[in-house]
Amino acid sequence: MNSRLERVASARKFSITPSAKANLKVLAILGVDRVGDSIRLAATKSLDDMVVLVRQFRRLQPNLAMPIFVAVAYYIGAKAAFLIGTLSDRIFAPFWPPNVVLFCALVLTAKPQWWRYIAAAFPAHAIAEIEVGMGASQLLVAFATNCLVAVFSAAGMQGLVVGPRWFDSLRKACLYILITALAAPMIVSLFGAFVPILGGGELARYPMFWLDWYLANALGSLTLGPVALIWAAGRGRLSDIVSGWAAVEAAILGVSLVVVCSIVFKVGADSVPISFLPALFYLPLPLALWAALRFGVKGASCAVLIVTTVLIWHTLKGPNLFVSADAALSVITMQVFLLGLSVPMLMLGAAIDEARKATRTVRDSEERMMAAAVSADVCLWHFDRSSDDQLWLTEHGRQMLGLPNAEPITRQILINAVHPDDRESARQSLRDAFAAGKLADVEFRIVQSDGRARWIRCRARADERHDPQEISGSFTDVTERKAADIELAQQRHEIAHLMRVSMLGELSGGIAHEITQPLSAILSNAEAARILLRQEKLNIDEIGEALDDIIYEGNRAGEVIHRLRGLLKKSEAKFEPVDINDLVNSTVQLLHHELIARQVKVATSLAAELPLVSGDSVQLQQVLLNLALNAIDAMNDVVPSRRMIVITTKVTDESTLNVAIADHGIGLKTFGSEDLFKPFVTTKTHGLGLGLSLCSAIAKLHEGTLTLANNVDGGATATLTLPLGGALPVMNSRSGS
Amino acid sequence: MTFTTFLVDDDPGVLKALSRVVRSAGYNSVSYSSGREFLQQSDPSTPGCAIIDLTMPELDGLELQQCMIDSEDFRPIIFLTGQGDIPASVSAMQAGAVDFLTKPIQCQNLLSAIEKAVQRHIKAREAYTERKRIEEKLARLTPRERQVLDHVVAGKLNKQTAAYLGTVEKTVKVHRARMMAKLEVRSVADLVRMVERAKIKA
Questions:
Q1: How far is CA B65 from CA B42, B68, B78, in A?
Q2: What is the DSSP letter of A13?
Q3: Of B57, B83, B107, Cβ closest to residue A524
Q4: What's the pLDDT tens digit per position in A335-369?
Q5: Nearest chain A Cα to B59, which residue?
Q6: What are the start-end ranges of the H helices in A318-466?
């Protein structure tokens, strides 16, 4: 970063925005180190403008070539003007080209460079004026006023209108007209009028001289100025202005204009009745309008220049309506006519350019947006209830939804494209969006023509007004994400199963024991019965009781296996009414041996008449087992007499149910207990740390929650909350076809 | 003599079944569902053995064994367990258990363990009665005869005994003969053996 620039900028009270800073950096790289220019360049808003400015800047960098070129142009312009004066005694030059040349040079360079051009122009001016025999004082005053008007105009333009494009808005065109065709010439003309006086004119004719001088400069600015400025400021290549068929059109236009103007201006005062005359002069107007409409300011200014040129040409050639006995008057009438034509044309051209630029910007922005939407695979749509039920959809959307091109799409067609199972939820969601004004966010399937289904996510929002009629939104294809979701769900299912198996592995000692007890009882009863049968006096009752006990113990063992089988299942989650109290008791049974081995006591406080919960009993049992095992593990280092787990079930309000497992262990250490629910996070010395994250996922699947909290009197409580009543969503782990 | 088995197990089904087996084999049985109950309600002087489950809540088998030893309850113990735990079995046997069986219990193993316990009981009983008899016989001795007994058992000659006691050999011989007659032994060897048996208690 060029800190010198920064310092100077802040000294001059320029605020340097971040974009300006970036620009300054670029300029430093490009070798632009003139402070004032850099800051002006840095202030341009777009990179394109800046590049053009830099190019202009470079082209007009302090060098010798440009000022010399300007001097030559100045000379040629002066000579041309004088030539017109000499070619005819009817008129003299209606404008003064050198001023326009000087003005263009000055307006396109930085102020510190201006002296070079003025210095270069002086010799050209002097030579040209001496050649027509102008006196020294006249010459000097003339030069001074020429420079003054060019300087004023250039300074005004640079101050109020920021390049590089000078005519691309109506405002800029109006400012150009005001500065170069009104303010500057009007004021400088006060001095310029002295030139003819110094050359021998009468002081009494000062107003006339003033008007002459003013009109000449104003006209030059309006007829030559725009074309010259556009050419000088742009690349200056014709191909840049028009190309292809447009070039042909421009050529036709130019030629027609020349022809029409020739006709109009040739007409003498006597060939046409006087009442026709105003109409006659409107003839070039349609062509000029055509030029302005099709080619903007470029076209308008060229048309004006053509008319001017043809008019001067024909006036030099012969008499026409403008020419009267007094040459001065003739010139003035021409000037007024041309001024009257050029001002509106210029403004129209600028307005057209501005409008075109605006539509181009809008169109570009729209294209960019569409391109972005397509690349994001998003389709945009808009629906207006009141307009015939028609739906507007981007092209991409028709493709996405498999709808035929070109046909207008109604709501019905769209609904028909949706998979029958999802139609109602999609409709309902849109109805809600209309009714409650909330964001509709719904996913549904579309059945394509080849029979395959794709998942579409629709987000839409209706107008914020009361009783909205319009809604707009987007469709996104989320098939891959859905497939990934399903796969994720399946993997989670697998992991849950593995966790269950692993938990059972932990409990295997206890479970084996749970089965050994009944087996032992069965064996002993059978052996006792055997012995009893060998006795002489059969004790039938005792034998009968022994057999009854065998049956009972056999069933008991069967129960244990039954409980295990539930846990070892890997089948799909099945939602059915579950009695949580039963589940708690079953869990305590499964843990029976474990509890004894670890010397942990269990107390249950189960709510009577607990309503049934809709859920998958295998998964819920898994959660309870896991939480209970955690509770047992938490009390490993606690004195055996204090090892106690309390399990409570209760209904908290009419729609939720709580199961709480409280222990007297070491409690939760981490402050962010959220971390404990993350996978692979564990405070135990064994295990993977997946238990809590799985339990939390199961809780969420049941639309419940799982929370952990420290108890006031030591230990922690895990609370599983489940919603009561109502069927749970049907969207289980179905495959996406 | 009635021999009672005391069954201690927290599982009611197992308790019932064991009771049936034991009774069908002809023994008496009393069931307790916890170690505490057993300690509080069972009389240590009743002849019998305890059949105790190792894994019970609150007071487990090994702890119960320790309590019995501490309170000088010398009833033999047979341990039952659902797991074959080697360290537990070792400490149980070292602390004097009769046997250590794993569930499911086979009736044969249990009954032979009970038999062993019965035998141990009988032997203990016999030893006890024997001691009592000897003590009773020893009580018949006069103090002088008692002194002579000590010296004879120590291997001293009559001459030495007389010198020690301050009397003559002849007197010692008389005391000796009377003592041997009272104690109903014929040889010094028998005398020494008897005294040894009595000394266990003393």
A1: 14, 5, 10
A2: T
A3: B107
A4: 888 888 899 999 999 999 889 889 989 999 988 98
A5: A599
A6: 327-375, 395-401, 411-417, 420-436
What are A381's two structure tokens? Answer: 């749509």
| Residues A627 and A699: beta-carbon distance below 8 Å | no
Cα torsion for A407, A413, A418, A423, to the nearest 10°?
A: 160
**Phi and psi angles of residue A442, each rounded to the nearest 5 degrees, phi first:** -140, 150
- Residues of B in Cβ contact (< 8 Å) with A545: 20
Q: Dig out the tokens for A276 from the structure.
A: 């026709």
The pLDDT score that the predictor gives to residue A5 is: 56
Q: Determine contact, residues A683/A633, Cβ cutoff 8 Å.
A: no
Tell me if residue A648 falls in helix, strand or coil. Answer: strand
Q: Inter-chain contact B16–A549, Cβ cutoff 8 Å?
A: yes
Q: Give the Cα separation of A123 and A78 in Å (integer).
A: 12
Looking at chain A, the whole-number percentage of residues with pLDDT higher than 90 is 12
Please confirm whether the linkage preceding A207 is cis (ω < 30° from 0): no
List per-residue pLDDT tens for chain B, 202 residues long.
578 999 999 899 999 999 999 999 889 999 999 999 999 998 888 888 999 998 888 888 888 998 988 888 888 999 998 877 788 888 888 888 899 998 888 889 999 999 999 888 888 888 888 888 888 888 888 888 888 888 888 888 888 888 888 888 898 899 889 988 888 888 889 888 888 887 754 3
Q: How far apart, in whole angstroms, are the C-alpha atoms of residue A483 and residue A179?
A: 68
Q: How many CB atoms lie within 10 A of CB A288?
A: 26
Provide the shortest C-alpha distance from residue A619 to chain B (in Å): 30
Measured distance CA(A664)–CA(A634) in Å, rounded:
8
Kindly report the nearest CA distance between residue B134 and chain A, in angstroms.
Answer: 43
Question: Are residues A515 and A561 in contact, defined by beta-carbon separation less than 8 angstroms?
Answer: yes
Which range is least confidently modeled, A59-73, A505-519, A574-588?
Answer: A59-73
Contact A389, A434 (CB under 8 A): no
pLDDT at residue A155 greater than cutoff 80? yes
Cis check: omega of the bond before B44, within 30 degrees of 0: no
* Interface TM-score (ipTM) > 0.90: no
Strands (E), B9-129: 28-32, 48-53, 77-81, 99-102
Give me the phi and psi of A709, to 5 degrees please.
Answer: -150, 150
CB-CB under 8 Å, B107 with A528: yes
The pTM assigned to this predicted structure is 0.51
Q: Which of B21, B25, B55 is the closest to A596 by Cβ?
A: B55
CA geometry: angle B172, B173, B176, nearest 5 deg: 85
The residues near A105 (Cβ < 8 Å, ≥ 6 apart) are: A60, A66, A67, A70, A117, A232
Q: In Å, what is the CA distance from A554 to each residue of A524, A605, B24? A: 13, 29, 21
Residues A572-605 pLDDT 10s: 778 888 899 999 998 998 888 888 888 899 999 9
